[in-house]
Amino acid sequence: MGIRFHWAAVVVFAGLFALPLRADEARKILDQYWKASGGSKIISRLQTLAVDGTVLATGEEVPGTYTFKVKKPNRLYAELRTNGKTLIESYNGKSAWREGMDGEISTLLGPSALEMETASEYYNLRMQLLGKHKIGVAYKGESPVRGRPARELELTFPTGVAWQVYFDPQTHLILEERSQVEGLPRDIYYDDYRAVDGVKVPYKIELHRGDATYQISVTRVAVNETIGERVFDFPIKSQVQLPDLKKLFEEIDANQKQIDKIKENYAGNRVEEETEYDKTGKVTKKESDEYTFFYLNGDEVSTLVKKNGKSLSEDEQKKENEKTQKHIAELQKQEKKKEEKEAKAQEKGKDDNNKDDPGIEVFLRASQFVNPRRERFRGQDVLVFDFEPNPEYKAKSLAEKLVKDLAGVIWIDEKARDVVRLEAYFVGDFHLGGGLLASVERGTSFVFEQAYLNNEVWLPTYEEAHLGARVLMVKGFKMNMITRYSDYKRFNVETLNTIDKPKQAAPAGIAPAAAGPH
């Protein structure tokens, strides 16, 4: 019998999550929970948790096995073997991955990756330092669980993921966790709590995942035993040898001019959505802007056409078109200066390329690269690897400090010599001006993704950022920003020289007036 599986569906331990941020009632519930589950001091000293057990799925006669491990600061591993199938999901601090029932190993994307990242944070924070991590907690009232009284709290994470957690008012321990994974409802019920090295852990778990039910019986729990990093990393059998990254990145950089030229054949639409939250996770502001755009000298030339779903007035659109023409003129001036500078450098027998762009060298110095593997992404063969701060390198510049604070995963099309997807997050707080100007908070993350169009070029399709920051040591804010690119059309780039004349500049920012879609 086939089964569906997600890491959160087999969690045997629900007692380790985030601090409340606002409601007195929520704080009271969690204060009681902390005390009942072992106390703040014991929880703060818990660095690793390892759990083994058996699992009996619906219709299964012979129990399977279950394994769950977490390790600070942000590692998680869940393994379920049942019905003759093995399913594994893990988060190694940089990327989330899965080994499916068919044995295929792949990097998780989208909601599944966010859920895995959130789970790792949820179980490693252990109800502490939630304010620092911008996780909201709200008391939702009384809500019975299987006929038993329970008190519900909702946890909202910076990624937008929300979990409902139900507490027993008598024992003050967790009775149930409820959430949805990509629209599929999931409930986990907990019972038979026992103390292990002072920490209360449930020894019976009943998991409901879609139509499937799994009965998990815990057989072993280990607190603070040594767990190696290899447990959370991609299996060695899936890994490959990395190519010469310096050479690869230099080729990608050198190929950018050709990519930029191909991109000038395309125009499209872009929608930007911006959502702000208060400290409890409640939405305080939401806006959306829609643009049309085309490419010039590698840059997007955009024109605003809608705001919050409404088209601009005639006067507003006229002003936006004028802004577009000014932007075009600025880009042309910059390109002319760049060409003149390169020409002078060639006359002197020097290569001026990339002097103002140390990104490649900085990346190679300040980061280290692990878990290389080859996968299929959007139908294309790609090289994938994780990156993390290089602990042996001391950053000397602002750019190096910035890169050294990043970890994540990158997808590269070696044939097209282009980055097709990038996920990154800050491993610590990043300060500008010693924190006096601004501070970007730990966990701030972003995603960039492209699609391979017309079998010739990768073009942006999606960008996402989850930002927590403080400006001038006063105002703190939490914001999610999503950009979606669509409706790409190919047009005749030969007419682009007409934009030298402002009156013939690309109306509405899509393409020159004389250019028609193919």
Instruction: Count the DSSP helices.
Output: 8
Radius of gyration: 26 Å
Total count of domains: 2
Number of separate strands: 26
State the distance separating the first and last CA atoms. Answer: 50 Å
Describe it:
The chain is an alpha+beta fold. The chain folds into two domains: 7-236, Lipoprotein localisation LolA/LolB/LppX (outer membrane lipoprotein receptor (LolB), chain A), CATH 2.50.20.10; 239-263 and 291-350 and 358-509, no CATH class. It has eight helices and 26 strands. A 13-stranded antiparallel β-sheet has the order 6-5-4-3-2-1-13-12-11-10-9-8-7, with helices on one face. Strands 14, 15, 16, 17, 18, 19, 20, 21, 22, 23, 24, 25 and 26 form a 13-stranded antiparallel β-sheet that branches. Strand 9 and strand 10 form a beta hairpin. The longest helix is centred in the middle third of the chain and has 34 residues, at 314-347. It is globular. Mean pLDDT is 81; it is low at 1-22, 353-358 and 493-518.
Main features:
disordered N terminus, 26 strands, 43% strand, 518 residues, disordered C terminus, alpha+beta, 2 domains
Topology:
Elements: H1 24-37, H2 40-44, E1 48-57, E2 64-71, E3 75-82, E4 85-91, E5 96-99, E6 105-107, H3 110-125, E7 136-142, E8 151-156, E9 162-167, E10 174-181, E11 184-196, E12 199-209, E13 212-223, H4 245-254, H5 256-263, E14 266-277, E15 283-296, E16 299-307, E17 310-311, H6 314-347, H7 359-366, E18 367-377, E19 380-389, H8 398-404, E20 406-413, E21 418-426, E22 430-432, E23 438-440, E24 445-453, E25 457-471, E26 475-490
Helix pairs in contact: 7-8
